[in-house]
Amino acid sequence: MPELMAMWCQVTDIQTAALAEVKTPKPHYHVMSCKPSPEQITYMDKLGERAEAVAKRKVKPEIDNMLKITGDGAKACMHTKLVSPNASEWINNKLLACAWNVWQIWTITAIAKGTQAIFCDRNTPKKDRWNSYCYIRDTLVMLGIPADQIAFIHDYDTDTKKAKLFEAINEGSIRIVFGSTSKLGTGVNMQSKLIALHHIDCPWRPSDLEQREGRGVRQGNEWSDVFIFRYVTEGRDNQAGFDSFLWQAIENKQRMISQVMSGDRTHRTIEDIDETVLNAAQMKAIASGDPLIMERATLEAELQGLGMQLQAYNDRQFRDKSKIQYLTDMVNTNYTAQIQRIQADLATVSQANLKQFISDRGVMLDKAVLIDHHITEQVQRLKESYRLTQVQIGQFAGLNVFLSRFGSEVNGYIGISINSGYEFNAECQQPYSSLLHVVRNAIAVKLTTAQENLERDRQELPILQNRVSQPFEQAHEYEQKLSRFGFLKEMFDAIVHESPVDDSESDNGLDAEELEESREIFWERDSSTAPLEPPSTAIVEALRQRQFDDWVSGDADNWLELIAQIVGDLDLPVSGDRFLQPQVFKPLSEFMILEGGGKQLVIPQKNVNEEREQLNLF
Q: How far, CA to CA in Å, does 329 sit from each of 165, 219, 419, 461?
């Protein structure tokens, strides 16, 4: 990569938002980690078996392959209804996690008409079967969000309709919009009031992630902060799951691309940036809840930091060794010769007199007025010259006298050559008869400077030599972790290469958006045929009584309070009950689950005399 970047930078001028210091909202990233259902764990086991069959070539590529397995795993992490029509509901699924977050943010930002975008590529809305879009929308409506404030980008099929939709979002009349990367990504301007972005699934490529988040983290957003949520379903026994592995792969690629675009040459290699497809070894590790996945991710992050420290150490070693060689030559040879030459020049000039000035024509100038006239004439001639930038005008005290022009300024030098000469002001108001005194002082100053530099470099040499002899402090730690990471990488990568699905024909003649839509169709072709239905009343009621601490897993930053604070700082006028506080109810631990005839979530009455709210289903 360093060699490639050196060639790349010769012909390109890279400008990114960070390099250009473009003012954009501050992004806050939050990972919402959700527990898997027993059905999801069972399904992951089946995916592991399928991956093993693919690896051993027990199945034809057109029947099953790692691309299909990757798609099925991603869909199962959203909801098992996407792969099994008869799957039961699960309170901890990430679709409900998203719905709860959207509902809370919608409530808090009502006074400012804060808007939100929900991205999902692998399960777009369908009228005739269950899908994540409608499931989240119905949940939001049952929680109290007006349906006319929610929109699917897929319902706007012309440029005119899309323009009106984006205008409504920027005005805040539509506050929640669902879409895929291809339809709601590149070129969409809906940032005016966008305070939150939700990633239901991991996008295919780093560019997709950048386009998604670029809808909010961009100029023109009225908010000072943007909150970005990534929803992941955990693996077995709290280990990293399928989602985590996909996000890790995308982030690694994005990090390397960012380093390339910023000129960072830390990495020597870069991975393929095309769609992320897991291999069989990775899939089997996820299905089994293998803790080695998390170990690999941790090691990779630690090696990134150690690698940067090692690179900085090596760079400093190179600079120090180069400087040691330079200073050694200067101290042992160059300074000595330079000081001897200056001392000889000083001795020569000290014995000189005005009669020793000889013009460039060989004429002896023994009077001050003649010297003044000659030098003034040469200065003026050099100023008027269009070709010469430096010229020798004579000799003084056995040394050559030069004039050098830079722009409209002319400087004088006296010495063996112009490069080793002593500079004097060739355009001074004093008569040039004082040249002898000026040159003596210039030589004396240069002699003092050379002697001081010699002493300084003599003192710096042992310091540099001692620093170069010091090894990299974290060398042992780095080698151990690098060896362990290499072992884990070989283990995960040890799989027979399988033939990918050939979709080249479907790409021919398609523009960018059509190509993205064709990918969406591919992910949808084997989706579940479960009927379209909203979540149960019990599930929605459980969400209404959910507390912040119960829902958030491993998120130390209370983003809910931060958003409320940001809204409060806007100092907007409050009319009636328009400014709403986040909902806080009883924790889920107070609920009961009854067995028999399927699991049923029982919601306790908050008050026996309280009239319960009636929830209307779609």
A: 72, 54, 20, 11
- What does the angle CA 585 – CA 589 – CA 594 come to, to the nearest 5 degrees? 115
Considering only residues 609 and 33, tell me which one the structure prediction assigns the higher pLDDT: 33
Q: Residue 402 belongs to what H/E stretch?
A: strand 399-406
146, 208 contact by CB (below 8 A)? no
| Superfamily holding 42-279+495-569+588-602 | P-loop containing nucleotide triphosphate hydrolases (3.40.50.300)
Q: What strands, in cross-sheet order, belong to the sheet with 399-406? A: 364-365, 357-359, 390-396, 399-406, 409-415, 422-424
Q: Are 274 and 70 in contact (CB under 8 A)?
A: no
Dist. CA 185–CA 76, nearest whole Å: 24
CA distance 64 to 55: 11
In the predicted model, is pLDDT for residue 306 greater than 80?
A: yes
Instruction: List, for residues 325-382, the tens digit of each pLDDT value.
Output: 999 988 888 888 888 888 887 887 777 766 677 888 888 887 777 887 888 888 888 8
**Cβ atoms of residues 276 and 250 within 8 Å:** yes
Name the residue ranges covered by the structural domains of the chain: 42-279+495-569+588-602, 326-465
Does the pLDDT of residue 278 top 70, yes or no?
A: no
The 8-class DSSP code of residue 117 comes to E
Q: Which amino acid is at 618?
A: F
